[in-house]
Amino acid sequence: MKTLSTLVFLGTLLLFSCSPETENVKDDQSGKVNFNLSLSNENGQSRQVLAVPAGSYLQISIETLEGEPVLEDETVDILSFNGNFVSEPLELNVGEYFLTEFLVISPDDEVLYATPISGSPMADLVSKSLPLYFEIEENSSIQLPLEVINVSLLLPEDIGYISFPFTVIDFFFLNVFKFDASGNSLTHAKGIIIQNEDTIKRFTVKPTINTVALSNIGNEEFTLVITKKGFARYSETFTIESLFETHENGLINIQLEPALTFTALPYTYGDDEAEFDFQFSLSYEGEITVDWGDGHIESDIPSDVYSNEFAHKYGDNSEYFVSITGDIDKITDFYSYYGSGPIKEITLIHLPNLESFRNGFNGPNMSPKVLDFSKNSKLKDVNVANNAELEKIIFKDNNVIKTLLIEGCVQISTTNLDEIINPIYNSVIASGRTDGVISINDYPWGTETTIGPPSADAWTKFSVLENDYNWTIITVFEE
Q1: Confidence of residue 47 (pLDDT cuts 50, 70, 90)
Q2: Residue 168 to residue 162: CA distance in whole angstroms
Q3: In this structure, are 178 and 124 located in the same domain?
Q4: Is the residue at 439 inside a domain?
């Protein structure tokens, strides 16, 4: 039998003394029941996960000893305090009762957990099954320790219920980790659930234990996809049952792999409207793997003498998250030009030896808004001509830029142009680097919109670079 997660509901018992004058007047007196949800470790070893989404509530039914209903399908709110889950207090008249129904229900009215009924197949998984006897005493709050089990893989009859009042929700738990200079840590990411080639759920992964709820998924296969800029795409196929069999308590721990990532925008080539092409080139040593983002993966591709060209045909012109792993720390050159490989965004943080980046003339709405080279301390040459959407280029003061061409990038403002020129200027002054080239053309092809223009401070720095360090400054601007 599959071991199921159990939770214990603990309450606080506060007893107050009864005076002789009131102890026999039970019908006019009351007490309170207060439920706390806390983690129970069934075998003392396996890791248990308490997953009660905000807004969840209890549904309970209570009868007298004679079988008369006192509460039927009563809802009780669950509150969270410092990681503990506490129900709002429930007031009952002094007397003896049976608890006959106990469900934990999500904000979407889907059953998460339930306490089995005595004699049902799963009743032996809890120490106390239903009906559960309890007594309310005058002016007291009583404790009802109740264990519940995860019902996502069960039928109502497995725990003695004729039916569940709401949909039974399937769910699992998810941790996503990244490793960087600060060490290994939980991180944000994007999640997608795909079933039968349809995307049935999109969600944001947070840097904590995530509860991923799935409605009406049955026990058919589904694919979990996790993406994060700068890390390889994770994809794995499960059924709910196989997931719980292979991952203790349904908890998936994912360690993301550093990667060169970009969003590819395939284009139609010639008259062939049925296929959309995408091409780019890399220079590197070693081997890399390219995940094209549509299920096609090219593994362990060795490097050529100079560079490798990568080409792929997509079925449509949707956006695709491409991730490149392997010996990416040895990549020295990225090239995609003249519309052969237009990209919406690119993350280069794991390419410490990148020396040349050339990406331009990609057409309208086919270029990144931001190029961040702050982690590429060996980058020398940048050519991003006629990228109409490009707004910012980020360099650190310790850069070694020798060639910069940003012609026709009309979204780059005067302020942003200063932020590009300043770190290059500062690094030249600090290092004495000579014979560089900066080329800025304010008129892209086919438009009168201008880049910048450079500020007065930028013009002064251009003069210093030209006169003191023999740099070539090519512009069409007038001082």
Answers
A1: very low
A2: 13
A3: no
A4: yes
